[in-house]
Write a structure and sequence with these properties.
287 residues, mainly beta, Outer membrane phospholipase (ompla), Chain C, two-stranded antiparallel ribbon, 1 helix, 66% strand
């Protein structure tokens, strides 16, 4: 665990301080306000929500035979509401919370496919699942993977790439309920993972970024504890995730972001979960 965190810190420092990197990092601030006076006819409620997004890509050909590609996705937002009969706004609640960092190292020898190793950290800034204690950057999902990768199509800035390999995942919860007390808990699973990434610039100011990922677990550290339960085999079902982002720039600083995400994980829910976000706000390109 400590080695993994140290590796992420090292990678982050290299991205900031290194030279000759192909870098891009966009940040956006989106908000929406609906406010009604107390004498407004109807049952509408006032609402206010805001979200900050950050998306970055950092890549470099370190050597003739080694390429590194790193991406980071950050998002945090809150929402609050107020009825006409209320004099103050309600408590702010999270509307989105994402930390997603991934680093892929590929051996580039002009073969049909490129061998790769990768590491990925998925988490959130604020864990409020325990009303008695707020925990930061929790829970965490850490994925180590290796296999083969290939650029399926590339023309100018348009690129579609895929990779297939083995993956080992650790789910770490530093605030888990164990025997009526809060403590550290970790589960492990491993299997086969397939990922396809697409970057499609339709115009100079319109860009589509998409990722399709499929994961089939072959072993699970808690499998024996589930024997005989209705959800005994849920962990064996293929997990799927389809993330789509359409970024539209309106001038130098204004932007429209449309994000549609579909997730399927039978351990969480038997049906596909959907998230749709549309925002208009300020956009700034740092790199």
């Amino acid at each position: 665990m400590k080695k993994t965190i140290t590796a992420f810190l090292l990678i982050a420092s290299l991205l900031i301080a290194g030279e000759d990197w192909q870098k891009s990092f966009d940040a956006s601030f989106l908000m929406n306000l609906n406010n009604y006076s107390q004498n407004w006819a109807g049952e509408e409620a006032s609402s206010f929500n805001w979200v900050i997004n950050g998306n970055g890509n950092f890549s470099k050909q370190l050597y003739a035979f080694l390429n590194t590609s790193n991406r980071i996705k950050l998002s945090f937002g809150q929402t609050t509401s107020k009825l006409k009969t209320d004099s103050v706004w309600g408590d702010a609640m999270k509307s989105t919370d994402v930390i997603d960092f991934e680093s892929i190292e590929k051996v580039t020898l002009n073969w049909l496919v490129d061998p790769f190793i990768g590491i990925r950290l998925e988490s959130q800034f604020l864990d409020e699942s325990d009303t008695m204690k707020t925990c930061y950057v929790n829970p965490m999902k850490i994925t180590e993977s290796f296999g083969i990768a290939r650029i399926v199509y590339k023309k100018d800035k348009l690129e579609v790439s895929s990779r297939l390999g083995a993956a080992i995942k650790q789910n770490v919860n530093r605030n888990a309920l164990i025997d009526s007390t809060r403590g550290f808990d970790m589960t492990n699973n491993g299997g086969i993972e397939f990922i396809t990434d697409a970057l499609v610039p339709f115009k100079e100011n319109v860009t589509y970024t998409g990722r399709l990922s499929l994961y089939k677990a072959l072993f699970y550290s808690e499998a024996e504890a589930l024997i005989g339960l209705p959800n005994e085999n849920d962990w064996k079902v293929i997990d799927a995730a389809f993330d789509n982002i359409l970024a539209i720039k309106l001038g130098e600083y204004l932007a429209v972001n449309i994000n549609v995400q579909a997730l399927y994980d039978k351990e969480i829910d038997a049906k596909t979960r959907l998230k749709e976000t549309v925002g208009v706000g300020i956009n700034y390109k740092f790199l």
